[in-house]
Design brief:
Elements: H1 8-20, E1 24-32, E2 35-46, E3 49-55, H2 59-67, E4 69-74, E5 80-92, H3 97-106, E6 118-131, E7 141-144, E8 147-148
């Protein structure tokens, strides 16, 4: 039997806890035309943005640069967070400043040591949904058009 549905405020708090967690592992989906691409990456949450790090020549970086959209998933299938986001900017690791510091502080590696081919991808969330069971499907949208609803 499923637990009682969480309040919107509790769901938002749980989403932010996942985003702020040390080593926040995420699935990142992008596409190039009809070809979807899904990859596990470690994320950070900085200045209300999802920050990813990857090689600039990776399919993820290429797809985001070309099309500007991604879907990021956090959590298990019975406690999922889905984030639809747009690329705000790409920052070479050598120029990352505070973003690089924040990413390294939250995670177990520092992409700035991986070489100049790495970049940080700053994603601006447009829609965030969170639910655990079918009883939380209603009200699962917590952010719409980049604005928190709670």
């Amino acid at each position: 039997m499923a637990e009682q549905p969480r309040s919107p405020e509790a769901r938002k708090a749980d989403v932010l806890a996942k985003l702020h967690a040390p080593v926040a592992d995420a699935w990142v989906a992008t596409a190039d035309g009809d070809e979807p691409y899904l990859v596990p990456l470690t994320a950070a949450w900085c200045e209300e943005r999802v920050v990813l790090a990857t090689d600039a020549s990776s399919p993820t970086a290429r797809n985001l640069t070309a099309h500007g959209r991604a879907r990021v998933a956090l959590g298990a299938t019975r406690d999922v967070v889905l984030i639809d986001a747009t690329l705000e900017k790409t920052i070479p690791v050598a120029d990352a400043g505070e973003i690089g510091e924040a990413y390294a502080a939250q995670n177990d590696w520092d992409p700035r040591t991986a070489g100049d081919s790495y970049v940080f991808l700053l994603l601006r969330p447009e829609r965030i949904q969170a639910w655990r069971e079918v009883n939380e499907l209603a009200g699962r949208t917590l952010m719409r058009n980049g604005t928190w609803l709670v």
